[in-house]
Amino acid sequence: MFLHFVLARHPGFRRLAEFGTFAGTTSLYLGMAARLRGKTTMHTFDVQDWRPEHVRDAWLDNMAFHLADLENAENIDPVAARVLAGTDLLLVDGRDKTVEASLYGHLLPVGTGVMLHD
User: Fold this and answer.
1) 42 three-class SS
2) Closest C-alpha to 101, from 14, 22, 19, 41
3) Is the pTM of this model over 0.85?
4) In Å, how far are 6, 21, 52, 70, 94 from 65, measured between CA atoms?
5) Spatial contact of 68 and 46, defined as CB atoms under 8 Å apart
6) Of 34, 94, 21, 79, which Cα lies nearest the Cα of 61?
7) What angle do CA 88, 115, 54 make, to 5 degrees?
């Protein structure tokens, strides 16, 4: 509900990203929100694809799932770095949120919204 509130208050958040896909339910919400805002994208990252088949089947064409270990300080993921350079809102919901936010936060454009969940 809070995520919906943030998106409603910031209609300019069009290019969305998420760290920590897990089952993909929140990812689907973000992908639909991005689609409703025009032809925009939602990228989500996780170390493993835990999405059940019915979630993968519901995936929209503006959504991209990426396998990535975002907690490895020795190896910043190049796809995540490229995606974040053009992101308007980042939801950090992976295992160690503070590590992920610390390693990747500096790659976000000024004015990007950042939310850490849990």
Assistant:
1) strand
2) 19
3) yes
4) 23, 8, 13, 14, 14
5) yes
6) 34
7) 85
Residue among 113, 104, 117 nearest 73 (CA): 104
Could you give the 3-state DSSP secondary structure of residue 4?
helix
Which among 11, 67, 68 has a CA at the least distance from the CA of 40?
A: 11
Q: What six digits make up the tokens of 95?
A: 């295992």
Q: Are the C-beta atoms of residues 27 and 18 closer than 8 Å to each other?
A: yes
| Burial (Cβ within 10 Å: 0-12, 13-18, ≥19) of residue 117 | middle
pLDDT score of 59 more than 90: yes
